[in-house]
Design goal:
The structure is a single chain. With 188 residues, the protein is of the alpha+beta class. It folds into two domains: 3-152, no CATH class; 153-188, no CATH class. The protein has seven helices and 13 strands. Strands 5-6-7 form a three-stranded mixed β-sheet. Strands 1-4 form a two-stranded antiparallel ribbon. A two-stranded antiparallel ribbon has the order 2-3. Helix 5 (67-84) runs antiparallel to helix 6 (137-151). The chain is globular and about 65 Å long. The chain binds zinc ion. Residues 65, 155, 157-158, 160, 162, 173-174, 176-177 line the site of zinc ion.
Length: 188
Amino acid sequence: MNYENTLALCRDFPSLYVKEATKEECERRSQCEFLSEASRKVMGLSVNGEPLMLAMQWGFECGDGWFDLIHRLSVDIAEHAQTYGLHPYASQVKEKFGSLRFHMQFREKVATVIQECGIDPQTGRWANGEVEYLPGVKEIRALLRHAEEASASICEGCGAPGSLITDGWHHVHCAQCEAEYRRKRGVT
Ligand SMILES: [Zn+2]
């Protein structure tokens, strides 16, 4: 994702995409050669008076065509988070096998183990573990799955309707972006 869109998401949703760090830590991170240019450029810029450190190690690892999708998703997550008093943040946002993968964590403990994996002493049978989540966690995770599904028909290049192309690298493109993509790579 480009610099402008990366910065816009961080400034509009700092609780989701920015984590606490010192100016020096941001400076060090901005020199990582494996980081995209956009991510390096935003590191250390100011957000609410604090230096910007991306919460996701590798920034937004997807095309700009998904900016609107991710922005809308972020609005929904922020609303739900406020309603339920939760504090989620993005740990990874990337394209994988053509569609969006949005991994999220919470700043609070959201799961309680109510049944460990193992032999249930009462039945003598193997019991799979069971976890109880705080209210709102499942709802927020459902938003992520919904956006991930939606990404399969949104061109990652420009945001127009697109379809999943599975020859070679999997990706979602509209006809125009796919033609451009093939032309650049000399594929016919
Ligand atoms: Zn396109």
